[in-house]
Amino acid sequence: MTLWSLLVLLLLVPWLLRVVQRAVRRRRAADGSLEPAWAELLASARDLGIPVEDGESPRAQEALIAGALGDDEGARSVLRGLREGVERVRYAPVPAEQDAGWRAASTVVAGLRASVGTGARLTAAVAPRSVLPGLARTRRPRSDL
């Protein structure tokens, strides 16, 4: 194996980790659970350079993601519904509709991808910040939340 082949394989590791992470979350969300879908949304947002933190409330996380969505009202509405669902699950659990959380997260992620340039999408795919925390150094906008 040449040095170049080894380098290419090494560069593919973060991408592969992210693919596996996404597949595991998708499988966990198959029972209608919103938490894996929300976790995937947060990871995808971080991959695209949005500085969401796990320790923040769903409402604060929603505010950061909504700010990045721009004028995409459809994705904003789905994001709001997903956040409300996550809050219900965390604070007042009720049965969830099968697969609804994953569909909602996918809609918002599609909106986020549409709101960033090709370079950010490529970086998110090849060097996902959610898998490589050292790359997650993004500037946060000031917030009153």
Query: Can you summarize the main beta sheet?
Result: none
Number of helical stretches of at least 4 residues: 6
Any idea what the shape is? globular
Average pLDDT works out at 87
Question: What class do helices, strands and sheet pairing give?
Answer: mainly alpha
Low-confidence stretches: none
CA gyration radius, whole angstroms: 16 Å
Order of helices and strands: HHHHHH
Strand element count: 0
For the terminal residues, how far apart are their CA atoms? Answer: 52 Å
Helix content: 55-70%
β content, as a range? under 5%
Description:
- 30% of the residues are buried.
- Helix 1 (3-29) runs antiparallel to helix 2, helix 3 (58-69) runs antiparallel to helix 4 (73-91) and helix 4 (73-91) crosses helix 5 (100-115).
- The protein starts with a helix and ends in a 19-residue tail after the last helix.
- It is built from 6 helices and no strands.
- The chain has 145 residues and is an all-alpha fold.
- It has helices at residues 3-29, 34-47, 58-69, 73-91, 100-115, 118-126.
- It has a domain at 34-131.
- It is 67% helix and 0% strand.
